[in-house]
Write a structure and sequence with these properties.
By secondary structure, the protein is mainly alpha-helical. It has helices at 2-6, 9-19, 30-38, 42-71, 81-92, 96-106, 112-120, 126-156, 166-203. It has one domain (2-203). The chain is built from nine helices and no strands. The longest helix is centred in the last third of the chain and has 38 residues, at 166-203. The model is unreliable at 1-5 and 159-164 (pLDDT under 50).
Length: 204
């Protein structure tokens, strides 16, 4: 990841892409992203968030395509309550789906909350690409400015004679984020398995 960050914008595009390809475990790119944010000016912050968001949006679209392929192999899927609810919602409010995609991907929520239901009804991935990219761009740009503001604010309250190692602090944050992602991925996997078993039981 450090090598990717050293590549600047192209490296962050690749990290954003790779980290969002899988639904089960998202690879956090926070450390290299924040490291670049610390030394960026306003235009560079916008460029960094935009490029990372584009990569993340494309990665989420790829993960949707994979989820759609896997879900298509499930038999009697149309009998599930989630399938019928999703299909009915889209039929009644078709123009709200892009807005919903933007909102979910524009905030730090798991992508599978919207990807899995839409994959069940084979929602066209072409209609998801733009809202996903815009949502991810919005999220990364906002996070970049928030982190930069927090870092600047913290530096004002730290005495100059104190050796404040920002890199060490970011390293600790990165480790905590990875641990959280692993724990959440395991929990999501268990919940998905339990839900799938429940759906099969209802169908049978």
């Amino acid at each position: 990841m450090d090598r990717m960050a050293a590549w600047g914008l192209p490296g962050m595009f690749i990290l954003g892409l790779v980290s969002n390809v899988t639904l089960v475990l998202m690879i956090p790119y926070n450390l290299p992203f924040f490291a670049l944010v610390l030394y960026a000016d306003t235009l560079e912050l916008i460029a960094l968030g935009t490029v990372t968001g584009i990569g993340a949006g494309i990665g989420s679209t790829i993960s949707y395509a994979v989820a759609r392929t896997l879900v298509s192999r499930v038999h009697n899927l149309s009998d599930s309550e989630l399938f019928r609810w999703t299909q009915r919602t889209i039929e009644e409010h078709p123009y709200t789906i892009p807005i919903f995609l933007f909102v979910v991907l524009g905030v730090p929520l798991p992508d599978f909350l919207v990807i899995v239901p839409l994959a069940m009804i084979h929602y066209p991935w072409q209609k998801m690409l733009i809202p996903m990219i815009i949502g991810k761009i919005f999220q990364n740009v906002v996070v970049a400015f928030m982190f930069r503001y927090a870092a600047d604010l913290a530096s004002r309250y730290v005495a100059r004679n104190i050796n404040f190692d920002v890199t060490a602090g970011l390293g600790l944050i990165f480790i905590l984020v990875i641990a959280y992602q692993l724990e959440r991925a395991q929990q999501n996997k268990l919940e998905a398995q339990a839900k799938a078993q429940k759906e099969v039981a209802v169908i049978n």
